[in-house]
Specification:
single chain, 155 residues, alpha/beta, D-Maltodextrin-Binding Protein, domain 2, six-stranded mixed beta sheet, 6 strands
Length: 155
């Protein structure tokens, strides 16, 4: 006979209810969105565009749009799919999941209709590549931004 059977039914159901309630209300993320550092679009300093709307940004990062609004060629840089900053950027700014972007890139590459974005290993590498590649677009947490890149606002 298990020990669980020895506990009176009233206590078992109350304890079970308390456990279920605690599980439902327990925070799944220890950081609120206010505590997380903002992720901003960054571009090469010579890029003249100062803002992009969400649809244009999504099209550029999905590699469906290959030019800036002024017609200049865009070079897209992204962090690895498993990077938490990449996941936050795709979810919060593009309203997509990293695997959805990866599927779109794979489709473009395998069909011969396009190419995947340039991958960088970390945010320092992202800043360096964006700062030194004409027409470049990427994203960084606010703490990694300096005068070497141009911040693009997104509406």
């Amino acid at each position: 006979m298990s020990l669980f059977c020895l506990i009176p039914a009233a206590i078992r159901s109350g304890a079970l209810a308390a456990l279920v309630l605690a599980w439902l209300v327990w925070p799944t993320n220890t950081y609120s969105s206010e505590q997380q550092t903002a992720i901003l679009l960054v571009a090469h300093p010579a890029v003249t565009t100062s803002w992009l709307n969400r649809d244009t940004t999504r099209a550029i990062f999905a590699m469906r749009q290959r030019t800036w609004p002024d017609g200049e060629s865009v070079q897209v840089f992204v962090l690895p799919n498993r990077d938490p900053v990449h996941a936050r950027f795709t979810k919060e700014q593009l309203a997509a999941y990293p695997h959805q972007l990866q599927l779109a890139w794979d489709r473009m590459v395998f069909s011969g209709m396009g190419q995947a974005p340039n991958r960088v290993s970390n945010q320092l590498d992202m800043r360096e590549k964006v700062a030194n590649t004409p027409g470049a677009l990427g994203y960084l947490e606010r703490e990694y931004i300096d005068e070497s890149v141009h911040v693009i606002s997104m509406e």
